[in-house]
């Protein structure tokens, strides 16, 4: 069993954490070498006080089916000391027990680290992201007052666009909203609040697009808008989507599909997967309907069906009856996964890449924050936007099974290396920090027209932030 140490640090937030450990052989620990799963019950883990009493925590062991295991946990209280026990056959494994001798804070605890560079080091953030550099290279000397006037004038149109206007001042989040449908502010609120609980962000002012489509056309616009999706003909600054961000914040809570859980639920071994290309979804693009028509003509090649219809007229004779949605993890019973755009980029792609199947991805002018890091025939197999060569690509995969399997493995490795929770946090903070340096002047303190977005209370969970207490003591 390959084991690697990752993120075993204390005095930081651990809302949901994973780690693997490097085996050693000594009198206190055993070494186990596995190349495949030893079963879901093979590894036991617990988070306890040094005296052995239980902590308020949910611990989960994920069997990655390749001989490695991920242990993650979600705290419901902050602690000064904790011990992590990892057991196999009742005996401590590798360097277990792991001791965290400083503070470990739960997700709702407001306890920001003041030193941003130290936070980057703790989180193992890269120095830069190519997508951020590309997005921000379009702007310099941003005058937020002029940006605000133009953004509100152009995009504050009921029924068309929706925006959240944020100022972060002294690590407090203030907001105004524009447009009719602003419910998705809950997602941008959540990540900004979560980040400010973990690290002191620079003062900044931004506009976040709450809709699907990127807004600022390269041919006519010049104002910075943050969006969850980019496109080749727009200049929006791309953030991780609300989907993968919520999965990061809410894993081991109200979200069951995330980039870790999907890797532990990849279905049968490659050789036992059904050799059919699979797709399910709604009718949010013409090519999705075209795919269903293809499937009805060649069901042995493609299993594609619509689960909902909102955009096009129902036609059972042409598209068949609507089918019930199936659990996402059941997708991976199939060897080939088809990824088609919806209204914009299909936000399921991170999870398809992590599922150890081969992803066939439609050519698209839409992209998420990580798309430009992906390489065709290394992480996925591309097909033309009009599906004209999809059949050919599926047949290629069938004839080149070893290569197809390798591409699926590469895709899963990409997810492990680029789309884990720390990657999502790092990307958000990096893009905010770098954008803050482009501002012509610091944002003004908000007046009464702004709403303070409150941090969640932690009345049911002890926070006990030592950092803030130390600062108050030093100030006094």
Automatic annotation (TrEMBL):
Residues 200-442 form the Glycosyl transferase CAP10 domain. InterPro entries: CAP10, Filamin/ABP280_repeat-like, Filamin/ABP280_rpt, Ig-like_fold, Ig_E-set, O-Glucosyltr/Glycosyltrsf_90. It comes from the Eukaryota. Pathway: Protein modification. Residues 459-476 have a biased composition (Basic and acidic residues). It catalyses: L-seryl-[EGF-like domain protein] + UDP-alpha-D-glucose = 3-O-(beta-D-glucosyl)-L-seryl-[EGF-like domain protein] + UDP + H(+); L-seryl-[EGF-like domain protein] + UDP-alpha-D-xylose = 3-O-(beta-D-xylosyl)-L-seryl-[EGF-like domain protein] + UDP + H(+). One of its GO terms (cellular component) is endomembrane system. Residues 441-476 are annotated as: Disordered. Keywords: Endoplasmic reticulum, Glycoprotein, Glycosyltransferase, Signal, Transferase. Belongs to the KDELC family. PANTHER family: GLYCOSYL TRANSFERASE CAP10 DOMAIN-CONTAINING PROTEIN, KDEL LYS-ASP-GLU-LEU CONTAINING - RELATED. This is Glycosyl transferase CAP10 domain-containing protein. It comes from Pinctada imbricata (Atlantic pearl-oyster). The lineage of its organism: Eukaryota, Metazoa, Spiralia, Lophotrochozoa, Mollusca.
């Amino acid at each position: 069993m390959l084991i690697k140490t990752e993120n075993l640090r204390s005095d930081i937030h651990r809302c949901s954490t994973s780690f693997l450990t490097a085996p050693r052989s000594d009198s206190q620990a055993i070494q186990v070498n596995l190349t495949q799963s030893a079963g879901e019950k093979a590894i036991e883990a617990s988070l306890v006080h040094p005296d052995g009493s239980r902590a308020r925590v949910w611990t989960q062991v994920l069997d990655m089916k390749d001989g490695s295991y991920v242990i993650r946990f979600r705290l419901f209280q902050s602690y000064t000391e904790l011990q992590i026990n990892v057991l196999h056959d009742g005996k401590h494994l590798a360097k277990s027990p792991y001791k965290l001798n400083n503070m470990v804070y739960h997700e709702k605890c407001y306890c920001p680290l003041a030193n941003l560079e130290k936070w980057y080091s703790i989180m193992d953030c890269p120095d830069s992201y190519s997508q951020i550099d590309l997005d921000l290279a379009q702007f310099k000397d941003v005058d937020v007052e002029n940006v605000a006037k133009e953004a509100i004038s152009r995009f504050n149109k009921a029924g068309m666009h929706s925006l959240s206007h944020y100022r972060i001042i002294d690590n407090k989040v203030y907001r105004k909203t524009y447009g009719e449908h602003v419910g998705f502010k809950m997602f941008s609120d959540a990540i900004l609040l979560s980040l400010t609980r973990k690290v002191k962000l620079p003062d900044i002012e931004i506009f976040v697009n709450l809709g699907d489509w990127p807004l600022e056309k390269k041919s006519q616009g010049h104002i910075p808008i943050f969006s969850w999706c980019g496109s080749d003909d727009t200049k929006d600054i791309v953030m991780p989507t609300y989907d993968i961000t919520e999965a990061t914040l809410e894993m081991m809570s109200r979200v069951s599909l995330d980039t870790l859980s999907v890797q532990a639920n990849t279905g049968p071994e490659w050789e036992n997967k059904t050799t059919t290309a699979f797709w399910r979804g709604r009718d949010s693009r013409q090519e999705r309907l075209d795919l269903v028509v293809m499937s009805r003509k060649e069901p042995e090649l493609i299993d594609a069906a619509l689960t909902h219809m909102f955009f096009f007229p129902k036609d059972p004779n042409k598209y068949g009856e609507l089918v019930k949605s199936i659990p996402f993890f059941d997708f991976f019973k199939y060897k080939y996964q088809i990824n088609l755009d919806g209204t914009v980029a299909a936000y399921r792609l991170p999870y398809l890449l992590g599922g150890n199947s081969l992803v066939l991805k439609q050519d698209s002018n839409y992209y998420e924050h990580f798309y430009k890091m992906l390489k065709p025939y290394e992480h996925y197999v591309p097909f033309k936007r009009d599906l004209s060569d999809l059949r050919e690509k599926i047949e290629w995969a069938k004839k080149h099974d070893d290569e197809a399997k390798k591409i699926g493995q590469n895709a899963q490795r990409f997810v492990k290396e680029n789309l884990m929770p720390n990657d999502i946090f790092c990307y958000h903070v990096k893009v905010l920090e770098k954008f803050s340096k482009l501002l012509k002047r610091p944002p003004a303190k908000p007046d009464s027209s702004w709403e303070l977005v409150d941090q969640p209370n932690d009345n049911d969970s002890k926070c006990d932030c030592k950092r803030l207490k130390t600062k108050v003591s030093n100030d006094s």
